[in-house]
Every structure is written in C-alpha cells, then in structure tokens.
Amino acid sequence: MTRYEKLFEPLDLGFTTLKNRVLMGSMHTGLEEEKHGFEKLAAFYEERAKGGVGLIVTGGISPNFRGRLSPLGSELSKPWHVNKHRQVVDAVHRHGSKICLQILHAGRYSFHPFSLAPSAIKAPISPFKPKAMSVGQIQRTIKHYGRAAKLAQKAGYDGVEVMGSEGYLINQFLCPRTNQREDEWGGSFAKRMRFAVEIVKQIRRQVGEQFILIFRLSMLDLVDDGHTLDEVITLGKALEQQGVTIINTGIGWHEARVPTIVTSVPRAAFSWITERVRRELSVPVVAVNRINMPDIAEQILASGQADMVSMARPLLADPHWVAKAQAQQAEQINTCIACNQACLDHVFEQKRASCLVNPLACYETELVMKPVTRAKHLAVVGAGPAGLAFACYAAERGHQVELFDRNSEIGGQFNYAKQIPGKEEFHETLRYFSQRLKATGVKLHLGKQVSLADFSQGQFDEVIVATGVAPRKLDLPGIDSDKVLGYLDVLRDHKAVGKKVAIIGAGGIGFDVAEYLSHEKSLATDVAAWQQHWGIDTDYQHRGGIEQPTEQPPLRDIWLLQRKPSKVGKGLGKTSGWVHRAELKRAQVKMWNSVQYKRITEQGLEIERNGETQTLAVDHIIVCAGQVSEQSLFNQLQQAGVHCHLIGGADVAAELDAKRAIRQGAELAALV
C-alpha cells in the first residue's frame, strides 16, 4: 500500500477520470505574451506532465480585449488563436495528463484604460478606474466566456476553469464591495450571482456535457463587504445545478491585507474553509494555498477536507513532485519555500516567471543540462546557494565535482535566513540540496578551509569560487563599543540582545533581524494562533471572513534605520514586502528613513534626522549595513593562472540574493 493512498487514488468525473488527486493550479508565467512563448510554454507544461500531474490548469487567458490583465495580455477569442494552444495541449497529452484552460477577465484589476467592472470603483492595486458595464456589455461578456470555452475545446483542452475568485471580474459582481448596481445584475445576492451562473450556463451550452468545467469559487474574500458563508454555499449549489464538474477554492482578493501564500503562512492554513463548503456540495472540491509536501496533501485528502489538492508554485519548484511522492521519495522533492521572488514578483513586474530554487522553470528550452562529452574534475569552494546549485547541476551532467566549505554544514547564509520567524521553509531547501549532493555523487568536504595551495598542483580542471559575502564594516566613532553587534552575532552566534535595539540598515537583512527580535515564537506551525494574529474569522460571522486581529505588547523597543530618504522596505519583494512591513508595524518597530549616523556613546546611538540631532537610548546597536564580496581566493587563483570562475555573493554582494546566486550557479553548470 502506498504511503500516499488518497493522493494517488483516481478521481472519476463520470465522463472522464483523473489519474490522481493533484491539480497544478493556475499561474501566469509571462510566456503567454512572449514571441514564440507558446513553444516554451508547451515545454514548461510537458515537464510537469512528465512528472505525473493529474490535471493542469493554465495561466489566466482573457475571453476578450477589455478583460486582458495588461494591454498585451493573452486572450482566446478568435479562431486563429487556437493553433498556438494546440501545441501546449498535445505536449501534455503525450504523458497522460489532462489540461484545462483558465478563462480570466480581470475587471477592475486590468492594467489598462479600457477596463470594465460592475461599478465604476477603482481598485487600490491598479492606476486605472474602470467604467461600469452596460447591460449590453454584460450580456456580450457572458457570450465571450462561452466562445473562449468553445475555442479551448477546439484546441483540444480537456476543459476550462472559470476564474471566479481573487477579486477578478466575476468576484467583483458577487460582492457588495464592488457591485453597487441597482439593476438585475446587482442588489440582492440572487442578482449579484446571476453573472457567474449565466457564464457557467453559457459555457455548458457551448461545450456539451463531456467537458471538464471547473469554477474557482471565492470561499474567503478577506476584504470588507465580501461574501458571507451562506452566499458562498448558495452560489456553489447553483453552479452545481448548471453543470460544474469541479469547484476549486479561491482565497483572498489581491488587495486583501491578509497574507495568503507567502512563506510565513502556515501550511494548509485555509483547508478548513474548503472542508466547510465541501460538506454542502456534491461535486469534487479542491483545497489550495501552501500545500507543498505530500504529507500535508495526503492529510487534507484523507481527513475529508477536499477531493483534490491544488499546487502551482510547488510544481514550479519541482516538476517531478508527483512522481517523487509516488515513488516514496518525498525527501528528494525540491520544496517550494513560498518566497515569491522569482515567480509572482516577476509576473507583477512584467517579467517571465521562474523559481528561486529551480531556475530551470519556464526556461526548459533555454537552460538545459545536457550530458557532458568530456567529464572534468571540478572544485567548488563554498556550499552556499550558488555553490550548491553549481555542484549539483554540474555533477548531474557528468562532471566529477568536489565541494569544499569551511563550515560544518552546507547552506551558507541560508542557515541564518531559516531562523527568521516565518522562514522555516528554508530548512527544506537545505534538506533537498543535502539529498541532491548524495544522489549526484558530489564529494563533500565540510570544515575544510582551503587556500591557493590546494589548487595549484593542477589536480582540478577548473575551480568555481562561491565564497559568499562578509558583513560590511562601518566607519563610525564608537563602533568598537560592547553595545555593537553584527547580524552574524545575533543570527549565527545567538548573542543576548537587550530590550531596546537600534538596527543600522533596513535592507532584507535588517528586516530579518527586526523580525527575529520582535517575535517570541514563530506562528508557522500554529494555524489557530496565526489566524487570530491576522484577524481571520473562522466562525465566518463577518462578511469577507475578517475581523479585528489580536494585538500583543511589543517584545522589544526597536528602531529600524536607513540612510536613504525612500520608504523603508521599498526594495523588498512586491508580493511579500507589505507583509514584512505590516508585521513590524504591529510589533511597533519604528521604521525611520533619512537617518545620518553620528556616533555610538555610552548612552546609545547618536543620529541626525530632519535636521535634529538625538540619541537613541538603546542597549544594543546591530549593524546590518550590507555586505562585501569575499574574493581573495579568486584573486589569488587568477594571479596563479588557475582556470577559475566567480559566482554568487562572491561575484556580486546584493542582500542575500539567493535567486541570483542559484541561477548563476545553474547557468555556469550548463556551460562548463
């Protein structure tokens, strides 16, 4: 009997059967808009189909021009759009997986001036105010959904998913927050839900009964004036009556101020609402959000919370997640750490998505690890993210690789990041690399401080230097005071820190140290405490499922300081930075910009701000003022004529940039 019995149980939909209970959730990649992007998209989805996914849902495709996410966004509305989709469908079908096209009309979330919505209410995340749809535009849009579904069927898709959540157009019709109409499309819930019901009815009319129709139902809006639970269930039952095959869960609008997918969200934090709605419905229901390992997926299915589990980013991180789980090799899964740095942050910046821990994602035709024609003997110095990535990919290609690190464990600065409350998932990346080193045959030398003499005898064909970074030292009067600690003193050496703290430097490391010092414990494994912390109303007594969050007295008196005049935290990730700022604000951390550091005295840190000099009476000053690259070994190797390469932080010191480091390691490994 398989360890994950429910996960690999086929799902009978009546007219067709899914081979397992894993749905690859919709995620826009940016390939949809690139020249020749659908060829690359086909390779991207094919790799996940090879990996055993039961059902794939594409990124959102608009049914018409006005519904596009951006002016050049993808739509499926003309017969000549069909052919490019066929190559995606064929690639997936070659491996026995099924694929559905997601139809998404952005409504007021469109980033263009032609946007439409139920009412002319501007979204806080878009610069454009939409026009209120006329009755004629509503009726035409319903037909456009049906047309898109019919074209998807012609392209060979097994079905469609209707995006009815996350604050997009259908969700906008459903909630009084955005629907203030007084005609037959607004007012009572029966009228507000009419748009969704008519769309499903129109699609079913166009495609017939033998076609998968998924509806992404917003079960928890997490915004004021969102759904009530009764409305969610009422809509779910109405959709069943119109022939929906599967109900997928939607959690939170994009404008919600409650985190739903970042790494600090506990695993399966929202499966409770899927379970609540599933009790009332008869069609299969899908659980979503922060399901990244087989154990948690199996638990959701075996306990009856859902009939399927949806994962998007975990299948970016490891396209063979399903196959590894089925082979009882969960320890070899490259786990999604929910950092969003290379996926969602890229998409919101109009860049191609990829993955921090898997830089091959969405680059399957460009970043290819081909077997070597001549194996080399390679030395890698530094077992941080860049060195680990290079060593594993190079060994996988067939090179003989030896990896050296002066520390007693792999990971480099990941070992500090994993200690930050809400970043516990970083442990998974180090577990994965540890397994991968063994599987690829990399010879690991820990606790080994190497020098030029170790490489000057010609025993290695090439040396890859990934020695990382060192903290930048400050030239400040009093810097040698006992009050002064570096971030390594805190995160690596765990030195005692007082109750009043000034942090010099508000980059990623400064924020991490502030998080570390302002939380007594992490909420990552305590779902109930996390829900209370963010004001999630699990009793669903309030519209949208939100209530006043719990407040705790601050653990310390903290100042987070930066020289720049820009907003503190401006350089953090687009989809996660607001969460970090919100957490520190709730911990009453004072985030100050435009600070000039004068001196450190017995009384504390003397600064100048807004033309005034003051002394912050603190117990400790923690320096997080950036890093410098460790390049001494590389320079010595170059001078000695040793063939060497420089990667990661040793090449460019940039705020613990693991995304760049891992990608650079992979790119070099593909070339050597």
From TrEMBL:
One GO MF term: iron-sulfur cluster binding
Record InterPro entries: Aldolase_TIM, FAD/NAD-bd_sf, FAD/NAD-binding_dom, NADH:flavin_oxidoreductase, OxRdtase_FMN_N
Broad EC category: oxidoreductase
Domain FAD/NAD(P)-binding: 377-652
Cofactor: FMN; [4Fe-4S] cluster
Enzyme Commission no: 1.3.1.34
UniProt superkingdom: Bacteria
Chain segments annotated as transmembrane: none
One Gene Ontology biological process: fatty acid beta-oxidation, unsaturated, even number, reductase/isomerase pathway
Residues covered by the NADH:flavin oxidoreductase/NADH oxidase N-terminal domain: 6-330
SUPFAM superfamilies from the UniProt entry: FAD/NAD(P)-binding domain, FMN-linked oxidoreductases, Nucleotide-binding domain
Family membership: In the N-terminal section; belongs to the NADH:flavin oxidoreductase/NADH oxidase family.
UniProt name for this protein: NADPH-dependent 2,4-dienoyl-CoA reductase
Taxonomic source organism: Idiomarina tyrosinivorans
